[in-house]
Amino acid sequence: MDFWRVLMHEAPMFVWPVKFCVAMTATTYVLSILTNNVSQVDRVWTFLPTIYTIYYALLPVWPSIPPTYLFPSTPDTIPASLRETFSPRALVMASLVVTWMFRLSYNTWRRGLFSLKDEDYRWEVLRQKISPFLFQVFNLLFIAIAQNIILFLLGLPTARAVAQPHTPLSTSDYILGTLGFLVILAEFISDNQQYSFQTFKHSGKLSPNEWPGARIQWTKHDAERGFVTRGLWAWSRHPNVLCEQSFWIIITLIPLLSPDSPKLDFPPTSFASLTPFLPCLVLCSLFFSSTIFTESISKAKYPVAYSAYQERVAMFLPLLTPVWGALLEIQGRKGSVDSLVYGTGLNSKGKGKAE
């Protein structure tokens, strides 16, 4: 096909990743039809960005001719400087993404989401809101195709790093790399706090084996509220999503802020000048829309308490939470809202009546 010939000639580094992305798109879509379970992409989300990232970071490792179909390969048309030496910057990025993968895989495993029978609860809610035909259109265009494209895009920052001169790490690499590992740690803590709360909510018992940072003394009132509002979740309604977005912003910035990067237009002067930021922009847009949908479900389940939580705690940025508190104080409502969010002003299932 002309497309593959053009790709091989103009951008040989992307030949294997594009083939793999097409294969994964087709596989996950077919499996979603055969199993009537559309969470197939969810199950491989933890692995695909890592696969793309490692492919670029380890270009010198792959053979020029693949021994089997879909085995990674490095075409001879790729410049020798990229095929024969490793990029220190790309290797740092790969180590960050592998660490990210282990965190997400662990959280996915303990929640049982690797089970072929499990499906994200939000898809079932969406099924009930639209017709079966529209849901299948959504399944094909967004769940299978768009999400696989997004996962493909998350590997592009590492490809950009590989294409740069393979010089020693710079100050920006060390700073952003350190921030990346700290963000993973913060997300791990938020995951553990959520898991600890959900375990207590369903069992009524405190676990003696919680991870550090998640050893919170949950109460009956916490369980009655129905959702977590303590720990990091007292400062951000979605600290895990905040960290996830921050991580991929950091990954995107590592090659862009390196001394080897061409000068960027700032502020951007055209859409083309935004393309280097495309991976994190697309992912952040996805998470923002997904979070709005998730919150609509939570608000329907806990109408009064979750509405109070939205008033009191910022969706993402913790720095805004004290601002929301100050505004409520001015309105004379901070006490009643705090009672719903942090205290005991609740009936069963978080459906308390605001004062």
Number of helices: 16
> In which range does the helix fraction lie?
55-70%
User: What integer value in Å does the Rg equal?
Assistant: 23 Å
Order of helices and strands: HHHHHHHHHHHHHHHH
Describe what this molecule looks like in 3D.
By secondary structure, this protein is mostly helical. The chain is 63% helix and 0% strand. The protein has helices at 2-10, 15-35, 40-44, 48-57, 80-84, 88-110, 121-129, 132-153, 156-163, 171-203, 220-225, 239-256, 278-301, 303-312, 321-331, 334-341. Helix 6 runs parallel beside helix 10 and helix 14 packs across helix 16 (334-341). The longest helix is centred in the middle third of the chain and has 33 residues, at 171-203. It starts with a helix and ends in a 14-residue tail after the last helix.
What is shown here, in short?
Helices cover 63% and strands 0% of the residues.
Features:
mainly alpha; about 350 residues; 16 helices
Please give the structural blueprint:
Blueprint: H1 2-10, H2 15-35, H3 40-44, H4 48-57, H5 80-84, H6 88-110, H7 121-129, H8 132-153, H9 156-163, H10 171-203, H11 220-225, H12 239-256, H13 278-301, H14 303-312, H15 321-331, H16 334-341
